[in-house]
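Kindly review this record before class:
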Amino acid sequence: MSEKKPEILAPVGHYEGLAAVIKAGADAIYMGVGKINQRALKTTFTMEDVKEIRKITQDAGVRQYIVLNSIVFEDDLPYINETLHQLKEIGVDAVIGWDMAVLSKSIELGMETHLSTMASVSNSQAAKFYEKLGIKRIVPAREVKLEGLLDIKRKTNLEIEIFIHGAMCMAVSGRCFLSHDVFEKSGNRGECYQVCRHEFDVKIVSKNTGTEFYLGSDYVLSARDLVTINFVDRLMWADSWKIEGRNKNADYAYMVTSAYREARDRILNGEWKTKGWKDLWDRLERVYHREWDSGFYFGEGFFGINKSIAKEKKLYVGEIIKFYPKISVAELKVIDHPVEIGDTIHIIGKKTGLVRQKVSSMQVERKDVHKAERGMVVGLKTEERVRPGDKVYLIKEVDTSDNKIDTQLITK
């Protein structure tokens, strides 16, 4: 297959993340609205937000996809019908679903329709079935290996969207009942409480004596996070590279999107062999992630730990009060952690997205200061435009020398 330009598809769960991924070079974003999506517990976007974001994405030349990929019950049908008509009127670029109620109505309305990974398409025959229905793009089951994905691509005319980074589910294609059994909240209705991320005591009972043995606490069901940056050059055949993480913060959204955008550009520009991926790996290590794995591309996934092992942590500094665009200086009120010349900071806001920079200059009453203590208001030189209300965070290195890194994973 000839080399193409896969779409960089970024997750959006809030306006800060939206601005961050657009700045980082995303070609498209996906977001939920209302109650019928797999992040319904934390989805705060309304239809008015969809309208506003539609304008923002159109101005930026970015495509907007709306996720409606939960199970639909009979009494949900009027809601689905109304929602799809509204999305049609707004003119979103595509709808992502898997319940036939969503798919059939979306296709009937003439909307571009994508099939969610929740449909568990694992072979070309199943893919062709959906293709005949009018589906334009599918997200195959995550359990499909690289060879299987290539077979589906070769044997159909469908666009193929694949996950390249982020959290993985311990259940087949996300069809899990743990939250329902434990909390009576269905993960298949977007209400996953991530029971698999909890710590479990493993108990062994002897069949002969009935004696019980405890192996101690462990994260036996917690799947590792997916990373493909070290072999993403083998995924250039895909139509879209999808990043998981609608619930993640703007730091994650920006750093991950920018890393994979840079990787794609290096490959297309013939720079992959000279520049490689190790600096991008380092970038990815600086934001939230669990232990990493290559997913199912080359075999079975593994389970790990449920905590971040990022190389960096952020500490709240304060808030931007004013910004003077002509001189690119912001008034920063230091509310919590002090900041010094040479420190790395993140400035995060609804329209700003994320600005990552070194502190190069600070002044109080036109006099240079080396350190801004709690309670001070300082003039901070910024590298980009920021806005009143933006939050400022100090970025600190974390000792990760004890973290396990699978060298086989890195060199695949």
About this structure: The longest helix spans residues 250-268. Residues 94 and 111 are 6 Å apart (CA to CA). The chain has a mean pLDDT of 87.
